[in-house]
């Protein structure tokens, strides 16, 4: 049976209260020492609160003194032991009070912000008050070490903090405000994801003053005949090898007429294109499930300003990267982009990897394995070593975060 919808603040009886969430549901599984409580609609509840589902799950574990199990890929959130729904709903109310509601106006429309000294504050979009979170709570440590998914809303324009690495950046916007909608708890976000992506990006584009944008931005390409010829010459050589690098084997049939080469040329010939246009082009070419398309986009979509451009195109990679093979192709594209095309950007590897990791496009295990194994699949051995050497600060940050998590679990 589907869960009902309740007010985010369950102490508010007003049926027209605009901040709503699904009623938290629970399911007991297992027997004896293996008994556990599964929360089947944790993702829906967390989405309504605009917080990652890992946060309330970890909060429950901390408050109950129980181990938690989180499988984000399969959308399973578990608290060890048998806990009834009423108890977990009470704890959810406590989580909302401590980590969602504004301390001043009690409005749930807040962002979580990390300050430079690694304090977490709730920034209320309703009244403008910033209120501190109790940093003594175990969840505060977890939040600092585990920034949530980025949604690409672009609320903090000019804030490049979320692309900084290797440490979680100070002043970084790490979660959006609460969901105002009172839609069905079952939700159909997955079915409408394309429309939501289109609406969001078009809305952001509509807010920009085209003249001011062109005057201030430096992403417009030199369209002189000489520049175009030079770009196309480099592209012909580069793109021809993009899709062909597959375990060191080249396919002579996949050259300038292959869909991958067409995609690469199109992105190069259309600088400044939107994320929506890129995804539609990938679909038109029938490449939305092809991991090589990810490699092509990394190599041809970005410029030397890749660090600031990644947030703009992150929705494309969120939709395209669906397997470990896709992730490895993305990392291979990064290797070729910085190793062959822009070697001066090799030191920025941590800043390039961090936003992809924070958006859950790259998994920790895949990045770690890549960073510790030199490969000649995409670039020569020396270049591969340089790229991985540059990634060490990011890999160290990942390892230290893991060590701290294990210590917390042991406690």
Automatic annotation (TrEMBL):
<keyword id="KW-0396">Initiation factor</keyword>
<comment type="similarity">
    <text>Belongs to the eIF-2-beta/eIF-5 family.</text>
</comment>
<dbReference type="GO" id="GO:0005829">
    <property type="term" value="C:cytosol"/>
</dbReference>
<feature type="compositionally biased region" description="Acidic residues">
    <location>
        <begin position="186"/>
        <end position="195"/>
    </location>
</feature>
<feature type="region of interest" description="Disordered">
    <location>
        <begin position="144"/>
        <end position="196"/>
    </location>
</feature>
<dbReference type="InterPro" id="IPR016024">
    <property type="entry name" value="ARM-type_fold"/>
</dbReference>
<dbReference type="InterPro" id="IPR003307">
    <property type="entry name" value="W2_domain"/>
</dbReference>
<protein>
    <recommendedName>
        <fullName>W2 domain-containing protein</fullName>
    </recommendedName>
</protein>
<keyword id="KW-0547">Nucleotide-binding</keyword>
<dbReference type="GO" id="GO:0003743">
    <property type="term" value="F:translation initiation factor activity"/>
</dbReference>
<feature type="compositionally biased region" description="Basic residues">
    <location>
        <begin position="147"/>
        <end position="156"/>
    </location>
</feature>
<dbReference type="InterPro" id="IPR016189">
    <property type="entry name" value="Transl_init_fac_IF2/IF5_N"/>
</dbReference>
<dbReference type="GO" id="GO:0071074">
    <property type="term" value="F:eukaryotic initiation factor eIF2 binding"/>
</dbReference>
<dbReference type="GO" id="GO:0005525">
    <property type="term" value="F:GTP binding"/>
</dbReference>
<dbReference type="GO" id="GO:0005092">
    <property type="term" value="F:GDP-dissociation inhibitor activity"/>
</dbReference>
<dbReference type="InterPro" id="IPR045196">
    <property type="entry name" value="IF2/IF5"/>
</dbReference>
<keyword id="KW-0342">GTP-binding</keyword>
<feature type="domain" description="W2">
    <location>
        <begin position="253"/>
        <end position="408"/>
    </location>
</feature>
<dbReference type="Pfam" id="PF02020">
    <property type="entry name" value="W2"/>
</dbReference>
<dbReference type="GO" id="GO:0001732">
    <property type="term" value="P:formation of cytoplasmic translation initiation complex"/>
</dbReference>
<dbReference type="InterPro" id="IPR016190">
    <property type="entry name" value="Transl_init_fac_IF2/IF5_Zn-bd"/>
</dbReference>
<dbReference type="InterPro" id="IPR002735">
    <property type="entry name" value="Transl_init_fac_IF2/IF5_dom"/>
</dbReference>
<dbReference type="Pfam" id="PF01873">
    <property type="entry name" value="eIF-5_eIF-2B"/>
</dbReference>
<keyword id="KW-0648">Protein biosynthesis</keyword>
């Amino acid at each position: 049976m589907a869960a009902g919808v309740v007010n985010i603040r369950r102490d508010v009886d007003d049926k027209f209260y605009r901040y709503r969430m699904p009623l938290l549901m629970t399911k007991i599984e297992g027997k004896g020492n293996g008994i556990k409580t599964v929360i089947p609609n944790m993702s829906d509840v967390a989405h309504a609160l605009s917080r990652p589902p890992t946060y309330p799950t970890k909060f429950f574990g901390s408050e109950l003194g129980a181990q938690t199990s989180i499988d984000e890929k399969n959308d399973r959130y578990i608290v060890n032991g048998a806990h009834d729904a009423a108890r977990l709903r009470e704890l959810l109310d406590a989580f909302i009070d401590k980590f969602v509601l504004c301390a001043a106006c009690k409005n749930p429309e807040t962002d979580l912000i990390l300050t430079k000294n690694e304090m977490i504050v709730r920034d209320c979009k309703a009244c403008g008050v910033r209120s501190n979170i109790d940093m003594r709570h175990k969840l505060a440590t977890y939040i600092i070490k585990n920034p949530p998914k980025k949604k690409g809303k672009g609320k903090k324009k000019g804030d490049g903090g979320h692309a900084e690495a290797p440490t979680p950046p100070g002043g970084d916007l790490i979660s959006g405000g609460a969901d105002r909608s009172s839609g069905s708890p079952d939700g159909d976000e997955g079915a409408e994801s394309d429309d939501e992506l289109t609406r969001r990006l078009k809305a952001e584009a509509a807010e920009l003053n085209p003249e001011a944008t062109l005057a201030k931005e430096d992403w417009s390409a030199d369209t002189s005949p000489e520049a175009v010829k030079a770009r196309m010459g480099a592209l012909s050589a580069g793109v021809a090898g993009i899709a062909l690098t597959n375990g060191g084997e080249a396919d002579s049939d996949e050259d300038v007429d292959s869909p991958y080469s067409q995609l690469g040329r199109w992105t190069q010939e259309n600088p400044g294109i939107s994320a929506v246009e890129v995804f539609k082009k990938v679909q038109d070419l029938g490449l939305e499930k092809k991991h090589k398309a990810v490699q092509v986009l990394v190599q041809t979509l970005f410029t030397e300003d890749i660090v600031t451009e990644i947030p703009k195109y992150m929705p494309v990679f969120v939709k395209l990267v669906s397997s470990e093979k896709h992730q490895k192709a993305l990392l291979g594209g990064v290797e070729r982009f910085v190793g062959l095309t822009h070697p001066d950007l090799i030191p920025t590897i941590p800043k390039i990897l961090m936003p992809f990791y924070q958006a859950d496009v790259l998994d920790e295990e895949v990045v770690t394995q890549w960073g510790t194994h030199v490969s000649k699949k995409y670039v020569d051995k020396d270049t591969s070593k340089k790229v991985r050497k540059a990634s060490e600060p990011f890999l160290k940050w990942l390892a230290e975060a893991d060590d701290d998590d294990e210590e917390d679990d042991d406690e």
